[in-house]
Amino acid sequence: MNNNDIGRKISELLLQINQKLQHPYLMRFIDEPVIDEDKLLLTYIMLKDKELSEIELEYYAVSTMLVQVALDTHEKITSHDLSGEYDKKNRQLTVLAGDYYSSLYYYLLSEIKDLSMIRTLAQAIQEINENKMQYYKNENQSIENSMENIHRIESSLLLKTAEHFHLPLWKGIADEFTFMKRMLMERRSIQNNTYTPLVAKIMNQFNRSKGGWLSLKNQILEVVDSYILHSKIRLEKLWAEEPVMHLMLEKRIEQYIEQSGFRVKKYAEEG
């Protein structure tokens, strides 16, 4: 299967997922759900390593992404007090939408009677939610623990799927790809002076009284860049073991690198 065929298949799966996510009442009050196309691509390519029928592959890929959409939807829920009735209704319906999207994966997998995959995805949901609690609630958390939480938040769904289908090499690829993408997006936010939870955690490790924001910003970027570089090196080693299917994924990462301003050449020279 060449890249064009994979691209067409991903487009077909996106259409299927979008059709399942549509709910006329919910769409009147909440934002359109966003599908992480990179995780869909990873899921599909990963499962192509198994001898599954095309129908089975579609069921597993669509089910996994419905769980991801549900998790992403619940993350949009605000915790601060809301005064307007429309905002309150929006929050209530966002909770409901996340629950609804999550129920769809259960329904799909029950159609093919795969209870073990239902349990696998349920375990992934639990692991992701536990790591989100640690990451967002613990303000004094170390940088190392914060990064580990991000690893698990971004990749647990794919890691559990890889474990379920006995694909050990893809566990590493999925983990590093999703983490590196998240770090590159964080880097872009920092460049745009956006105050994210990760920025707050890294700043807690520095003496804020010395230097202004520009000095802190450069220190924060140095920390993030070190994790990006480590992840990139690890990913390239893993891709060397899976030379056929990584080209589309590598192209995606290169796009994120360019958008983030991360200078690979600079680190190569310093190394």
What's the SSE pattern? HHHHHHHHHHHH
Discrete helix count: 12
Q: Radius of gyration, rounded?
A: 20 Å
Shape: globular
Uncertain residue segments:
none
**SS class:** mainly alpha
Mean of pLDDT:
87
Spatial separation of the terminal alpha carbons: 38 Å
How would you describe the overall organization of this protein?
The chain has helices at 3-21, 24-27, 37-47, 54-75, 85-111, 115-137, 143-164, 168-191, 197-203, 213-241, 247-260, 264-270. By secondary structure, the chain is mainly alpha-helical. The longest helix has 29 residues, at 213-241. The mean pLDDT is 87.
Question: What is this structure's SSE topology?
Answer:
Layout: H1 3-21, H2 24-27, H3 37-47, H4 54-75, H5 85-111, H6 115-137, H7 143-164, H8 168-191, H9 197-203, H10 213-241, H11 247-260, H12 264-270
Short description:
The protein has 271 residues and is mainly α. Helices cover 77% and strands 0% of the residues.
Keywords:
single chain, 77% helix, 12 helices, 271 residues, globular, mainly alpha
